[in-house]
Design brief:
The structure is a homodimer.
Chain A: E1 4-9, E2 14-19, H1 22-25, H2 29-40, E3 53-58, E4 72-77, E5 84-89, H3 93-99, E6 102-108, E7 117-122, E8 125-130, H4 139-145, E9 154-158, H5 161-164, E10 172-175, E11 181-184, H6 189-195, E12 198-204, H7 217-233, H8 235-244, H9 249-255, H10 277-287, E13 290-293, E14 304-308, E15 314-317, H11 321-330, H12 336-349, H13 353-365, H14 374-386, H15 389-395, H16 398-404, E16 412-413, E17 416-417, H17 427-435, H18 448-451, H19 467-484, H20 490-496, H21 500-512, H22 518-539, H23 551-554, H24 568-572
Helix pairs in contact in A: 2-19, 2-22, 7-21, 11-12, 11-13, 12-14, 13-16, 14-15, 17-19, 19-22
Chain lengths: 577, 577
């Protein structure tokens, strides 16, 4: 069985199976989705129109037994930002697609009639069926009604009500091993799926090989072991993330004065302990939830958790720092039970938890509800679920909510909400927000690793020196990691343990029978960034868009009275490579 | 008394009177507002933030007795488009400012407190007073409560509820000689005024000179007479516009197959006669309204009218073709009485009638109300007035309404609604929409004059040949006319009567004691366009933004099955001058 690309055209409901062009054979994950979007999508097209394409691709190591290799990439022109977009998530889909040797699934066109469909993907092809029963359902109802909660051999990609309505904050949900969801979160890819009339996609690998073939399985085993060991030995990957989840960051980031509070008015939230990872783990342990949990098979970090209520009943999992920050410090709501409930609702409606929660803070800024109003937060999410006019506004994300209410303190870059780290107090991440090819995004060049966690050395977060170079190096490395199917969090180990990156290269070589060297990884990352940047330039983006909102340069941030003081010229140095 | 610039800083409520810098002494109207905005406003600033500036400037001939010289220009960075913006209107303000020898009024900063103010402008300076009583009032209530309806010596610039809320479709209303309103309509300048906390500005010229000094008054008189004669002799300026108003165009544009109907699905509206200028004039005459009416003293064209209801009671004036088209053919509402009522409501709330009416059509596209629902139109305008969430969406204009409801058939360029002429069937105006420095705008290069009315020759509207050159020539000429304070409609005479342009040049020479030649007018126009373009480029605009929405290239327009078939390269030729 050879690797292939499945291409679905929703305009005429046709399906093709195509051989993988030579140029794309060495690519996977983000490198592949960005290459396909750049090659096939007109950069100035309407993101929700007939000319956009939605591409899913497992990573190069997906389907192997490499630790933490279960990330699926999705790519398209983003309706939120207007830029190229890649979003990746855990869950079971990447491994199932890899097992079926599907290099990419491309969905193009839009249906002639106003009708939703279901796609069923197997190793042999894709069938398209009109879907009516599950329209209007949230993601949890979809997975339950399809009977897929416990089916380990069948994956699910689904959109909730937000995606059906083409809302710009809509995500795509990826079923995880427990039948819950991980999210292809940012950039509104759920709206692209909705615009194509696709409610859900099942990925049925029953009867196929259990893992992908390896050209040199002995060499792979050795490298995989070295790699897993590097992860387990690292204090962040092997310890911190498992013990407290990503929410370990609340106390740490607050301590550095970079936890954006009350819509970026302070870097310190006086109730931060109430929403911290430590507090969360304590609550989970007391109530009998799961402190550690993996979002895909083969994860050794276990940064997820199962958050339960006082009665021990499941509420949510994958309860991340950025979401908790946004509803917590940003909206000043200090009740983790409310935040967990809201997190589950957002997963069900299918909205990006960062975009939506930052937007709720703007609803507070606009006076729609008050800062700190947890019950109000839940009411607003109900508006998003039902699609009321207010829900339509909020579902369109932070930039549009800001414009609709005439706000000036709107934390977005390229119309995507700025997450969880104030760029005035963590200047490296500010450079990442500005220069990201996909709008404000922390994961695309996570300088927090070096600015705060001191992985890969230390660059003082309050000083300008070294930040552009740091962000550039991390963005290049991340573009490569995002192409392997490995979880971004392996980067902590890669930065600190000199055995980790060679082990990744060895795994790739053993998987495909090639002879990459470490420098090739950097070259791949650079090439991905340049491809993405070229798409954006053709879509009309310039250096003038690589800027933070002006309030970051006009208002100092307590407690350090930090200010955003990069000039345009200094930021633009980023692209000199 | 020398000409001066008044500068008001709303951050500290200070006022300065400044001498006019040499470089700006030969500029007026749009040339001056664009020069000031380009020189003083950071192109990437937030349009509603502290760094934007709102500039008012009468034209070079304002305050003289030149026919149709009463246009006031307002400029800023537009919150709707993100580009530089100049909008001009009739009414009494330009002449009053010119009489007071105020070359420009610049309003900068934003108030420290959330408080609205009134500005009182006299020849001596500006006073700033907190305003509370009139907050929440529509424009008609403002002018009445201020007792300014019949005060010919005191002008008024005011915003309605939409401007107070920083809504992107908000306009600035300019009192006309009857105490009704003309609009600085497009680009959301009312939101800029609202963001600066200015509810209204009075312009009190009582006791000042009745007209501006002329260096050579005899020469001026001769030229002014020649100019007025050219206007009166022209079939459009001297006859058509007076008899039927701009709404004379409904039947004409429908006949050419370019009247966009049901959100740009056809170029022919089967009920077009019901909303035509002929029908309107007949109704006005029967009911005892005024068929002809000028928006400012000295207007010889009289394209306005006073539309009355069945009981002969005043409903609206300045009831324009583009507004009637948008609510009529675009929304499929064929009842002029409802359209007139809606026109008056929009003047009162203070929203751009084109942007808002095109947006109402998108609300129909989204299924919020049905096409043809006149009562629904009035209900939606009430939402805008009260600022409900739905009203907030609609008040944000067509682009945001399209995004909020996930629409793809959204007729905007640079986020400003496309007016009244389908670019597929009137290709010259399509080039104007694309290349305008201010988003889709017909007045900035009104090729309809030559494509349809056959003024200045004829360029076949259905063919590509000659359109780029036509649009370029008209945009250059318009930029110059917009700087003189002359109404754009003088262009019809300028295109056809060889005495008209030399007469304008003679008037300018006689007014200022200079010796311009006709070529200098073209040079001025070119220079204005280049200044504006440079601002936009620094703000992040590229050729990729000079494009129509993709549905114009994908859907043919009945009855001619016309299509938008310009390539990007062909459009970009526009800027080769």
């Amino acid at each position: 069985m050879a690797e292939k690309i499945f291409r679905v055209d929703m305009s005429d409901l046709s399906v093709k199976s195509e051989a993988v062009p030579t140029a794309w054979q060495g690519l996977g994950g983000r490198a592949l989705t960005s290459a396909i979007v750049a090659a096939e999508v007109e950069p100035t097209c309407h993101p929700l129109g007939r000319n956009n394409k939605l591409v899913f691709a497992p990573g190069l190591l997906s389907g192997t037994r490499a630790a933490n290799s279960g990330r699926l990439s999705a790519g398209a022109k983003s309706p939120l930002t207007g830029t190229i977009k890649e979003s990746n998530a855990g869950g079971t889909a990447a491994q199932l697609m890899a097992r079926m040797e599907i290099k990419a699934l491309i969905i193009e066109g839009i249906p002639a009639e106003s009708q939703f469909y279901a796609l069923k993907v197997t190793a042999d092809g894709v069938t398209i069926t009109p879907e009516n029963n599950l329209i209007g359902c949230g993601n949890f109802e979809v997975v339950e009604k399809l009977g897929l909660v416990d089916n380990k051999e069948c994956g699910l990609l689904s959109i909730g009500q937000a995606g059906e309505r083409n809302q710009l904050s809509a995500n795509i949900s990826v079923k995880d091993p427990e039948g819950k969801f991980r999210s292809l979160g940012r950039g509104g890819l759920g709206a692209v799926m909705g615009s194509k009339g696709v409610k859900y996609i099942t990925l049925d690998a029953a009867g196929t090989q259990k893992s992908v073939p390896l050209v040199d399985s002995d060499k792979f085993k050795v490298a995989a072991k070295t790699f897993a060991k590097a992860l387990l030995n690292h204090p962040v990957c092997g310890e911190g993330l498992g013990a407290y989840g990503t929410n370990i960051l609340v106390n740490i980031v607050d301590e550095t004065g970079g936890l954006p509070t009350k819509n970026f008015r302070s870097g310190h939230y006086d109730k931060h302990e109430m929403i911290s990872g430590e507090k969360m783990s304590e609550m989970i342990a007391e109530r009998g939830g799961k402190v550690k949990h993996g979002c895909h098979a083969g994860c050794v970090m276990q940064c997820s958790q199962v958050f339960v209520d006082k009665e021990g009943k499941y509420v949510t999992s994958g309860f991340e720092y950025e979401t908790i920050w946004a509803m917590g410090a940003h909206c000043c709501i200090d009740d983790l039970d409310i935040l967990a409930q809201a997190d589950s609702i957002m997963d069900d409606i299918g909205v990006d938890a960062i975009e939506m929660s930052v937007t709720i803070g703007l609803a507070m800024e606009a006076g729609i509800i008050k800062f700190g109003d947890g019950a109000g937060l839940l009411r607003l999410l109900d508006d998003v679920k039902t699609g009321s006019p207010l829900g339509r506004i909020l579902g369109s994300g932070a930039a549009i909510t800001g414009k609709t209410y005439g706000l000036t303190r709107v934390p977005v870059v390229k119309d995507q909400a700025i997450p969880a780290y104030d760029p005035r107090a963590v200047k490296g991440i500010g450079i990442t927000y500005c220069t990201s090819t996909m709008g404000a995004d922390h994961t695309i060049g996570y300088t927090v690793a070096t600015n705060i966690l001191k992985c890969g050395g230390f660059v003082d977060p309050l000083q300008k020196a070294g930040q552009v170079e740091l962000s550039r190096n991390l963005q290049i490395a991340t573009a490569a990691i995002d192409s392997t199917g490995l979880c971004l969090f392996v980067a902590f180990a890669v930065l600190d343990d000199e055995t980790a990156l060679p082990a990744i290269v060895d795994m790739l070589n053993a998987r495909f029978g090639i002879s990459m060297i470490v420098d090739d990884v950097t070259a791949l990352g650079s090439s991905v960034l340049k491809t993405e940047r070229a798409f954006n330039q053709a879509a009309g983006f310039t250096n003038a868009h690589d800027r933070l909102p002006e309030f970051f340069a006009a208002e100092t941030l307590p407690p350090h009275n930090a200010i955003w003081d990069f000039t345009g010229e200094e930021i633009d140095e980023f692209w000199n490579f």
